[in-house]
Design brief:
With 334 residues, the protein is α+β, with helices and mostly antiparallel strands. The chain has two domains: 158 residues, Neurotransmitter-gated ion-channel ligand-binding domain (Acetylcholine Binding Protein, Chain: A, Distorted Sandwich); 121 residues, Neurotransmitter-gated ion-channel transmembrane domain (Methane Monooxygenase Hydroxylase, Chain G, domain 1, Up-down Bundle), CATH 1.20.58.390. Helix 2 runs antiparallel to helix 3, helix 3 runs antiparallel to helix 4 and helix 4 runs antiparallel to helix 5. The N terminus is likely disordered.
C-alpha cells in the first residue's frame, strides 16, 4: 500500500513540474515575440552644418535687407539623404548657389556650396544712430522634418573672413546656433500626428555696432543750428514781435525738414525712437521760444521793459543750456 502511495505522489510531482515548465516556455515565447514585434525608435540622421561668411554688403535700412556671400558645408554619413538640394535660406529674398561640390571622405559625405543672395532683415532703429544690429542668415531643411534629419551646427569650424570689413560698422560677434523651426501646420503629411511640424535649422548671426558719432553730427548738425537760430529771438527787441516770430518759425521749418530727411533713411516703425525724441524736444523748445516771446512782448507793452530785457538775457543762455543737457540725457540712455 505504501509503495502505491509513493508512486502516486511521485507521479503528481512530476506532472506539476512539467506543467510549470511548459507555462514558463510560453511566457518566454510571448516576451520574445513582443520584443521582435515592437517597433524600433526612429533615430534621425545627423548632418553637421557649418558656414564661412565671405562678405556682407548693401545694407538697406529703408528696405529691410542686406546682401551676403557665404560658403556652407554639410557632412553626414547616410547615403540615403538627399540634402544637397533640399535645404534653403529661409529669410532670402533672392538666393543662388554656385560652386557646389560633393565628395566622399573617410566614409562621410561632404558637400560644399557657395550661396549669394539678398536677405530680409529686421532692423532695430530705436537707438539710431547708436544702434547695434544682428544680421541673421537662417538655413533650414526643406524636405526632411526633425523625425528624419537634424542639423548640428559646426561651431568650431564656422567663421567670418578676418579680412572682411563693413564700412561704418564694427563687427562685434559671430555665432552659428541650432534654432529649429516650428510651423502650425503638418503640410498635409498623414504621417505627422497633430497639426504642427518641426524642421531642423541653424542661424548664422553676425552682431555689428554702428560707428556712431560721425553720423550723429552729420544727421543732427542742421537741427542744432536751427535751434540756435531760434534762440536768437531773445536778442531781438521785445517790441519787434514779427522779427522774433520770423526767426523762430524759420528754425521750426528747418527742424521739420531735418526730420523728413532722417525719416527717409529709416524703416517705418511704431516705436518712439531716439531720433523722434530729439526732434520732439527741438520742436518743444522752438514752440516755447515763440510762446515766451509773445509773453515778453506783452510785458514790454505794459512798460516792464527792463524786466523783459533781463528775462530775455536769461533765456538766451538758459534755453540752449537746458536743451544740451536734455540731449545728453537722451543720448546716454540710448
Amino acid at each position: 500500500m505504501k509503495k502505491y502511495l509513493l508512486l502516486i505522489l511521485l507521479y503528481g510531482a512530476g506532472f506539476f513540474c512539467l506543467t510549470a515548465h511548459a507555462q514558463d516556455e510560453k511566457k518566454t515565447e510571448k516576451t520574445e515575440k513582443a520584443t521582435v514585434d515592437s517597433p524600433k525608435p526612429n533615430v534621425p540622421d545627423t548632418v553637421k552644418i557649418g558656414a564661412f561668411v565671405n562678405n556682407i554688403y548693401d545694407l538697406s535700412m529703408t528696405n529691410g535687407e542686406c546682401s551676403a556671400s557665404v560658403w556652407v558645408w554639410l557632412v553626414y554619413k547616410s547615403d540615403t539623404l538627399k540634402i544637397s538640394e533640399n535645404f534653403e535660406v529661409i529669410n532670402a529674398k533672392t538666393a543662388q548657389r554656385v560652386s557646389t561640390t560633393t565628395e566622399r571622405v573617410d566614409g562621410l559625405n561632404w558637400i560644399t556650396t557657395k550661396i549669394m543672395g539678398k536677405l530680409q532683415q529686421d532692423w532695430f532703429v530705436h537707438n539710431f544712430p547708436f544702434d547695434t544690429q544682428k544680421i541673421v542668415i537662417k538655413l533650414e531643411s526643406s524636405l526632411y522634418d526633425m523625425r528624419s534629419m537634424v542639423f548640428k551646427a559646426d561651431v568650431e569650424g564656422s567663421k567670418i573672413d578676418k579680412n572682411f570689413a563693413l564700412a561704418g560698422w564694427d563687427i562685434k560677434k559671430f555665432e552659428i546656433i541650432n534654432n529649429p523651426s516650428e510651423y502650425d501646420t503638418n503640410y498635409g503629411d498623414p504621417s505627422i500626428k497633430g497639426e504642427k511640424s518641426r524642421y531642423s535649422a541653424v542661424d548664422i548671426v553676425i552682431t555689428i555696432k554702428r560707428q556712431s558719432w560721425g553720423l550723429f553730427f552729420k544727421v543732427f548738425l542742421g537741427l542744432y543750428i536751427a535751434l540756435l537760430i531760434s534762440s536768437l529771438v531773445f536778442l531781438v527787441p521785445s517790441n519787434d514781435l514779427n522779427s522774433k516770430f520770423g526767426l523762430a518759425i524759420g528754425g521750426l521749418f528747418a527742424a521739420v525738414g531735418n526730420k523728413y530727411i532722417v525719416d527717409s533713411v529709416l524703416p517705418e516703425t511704431n516705436v518712439f525712437t531716439l531720433c523722434d525724441q530729439i526732434h520732439a524736444l527741438t520742436f518743444s523748445f522752438i514752440f516755447f521760444y515763440i510762446l515766451i516771446s509773445a509773453i515778453f512782448h506783452e510785458l514790454d507793452k505794459r512798460g516792464k521793459t527792463e524786466l523783459t530785457v533781463k528775462l530775455e538775457r536769461i533765456c538766451l543762455f538758459a534755453g540752449p543750456l537746458l536743451y544740451a543737457i536734455l540731449n545728453f540725457i537722451l543720448i546716454t540712455r540710448a
